[in-house]
Amino acid sequence: MSQDAYELDHNGRAEVMKALEEVCSNRSWRLLAAHIRTEHLHLVVDAEERPERVMTTLKAYASRRLNRVETGDASRRRWARHGSTRWLWTSEAISAAVRYVLEEQGAPMEVFHENTAP
After folding, report:
1. Residue 118 above 60 pLDDT?
2. How is residue 107 annotated by DSSP?
3. Cut 0.70: pTM above it
4. pLDDT tens readout for residues 5-16
């Protein structure tokens, strides 16, 4: 990244979560798990799109949401240029990814799990 790491506070993490849920609903994607940390996030999404496209779309929605609720420089970079994207082909791989996102990221911050969504 060309700028210092962007840090999400509690409100920023909550807004990003809202954006992720919104885009997944709008695109008929299933958000299976999300864990939004201070400087990065982990997601498991079921979508009929290439993972890179899903990631780009999610970053765009999250950035627009943050631009609406935050004051400051709207050109501020929040995300690295790319990120880790993987196809998950089996139910075992999906379960392992959900477990990793929910249980292996340290103390829970802003967390979503499909089975516990309202």
Report:
1. no
2. S
3. yes
4. 677 888 888 999
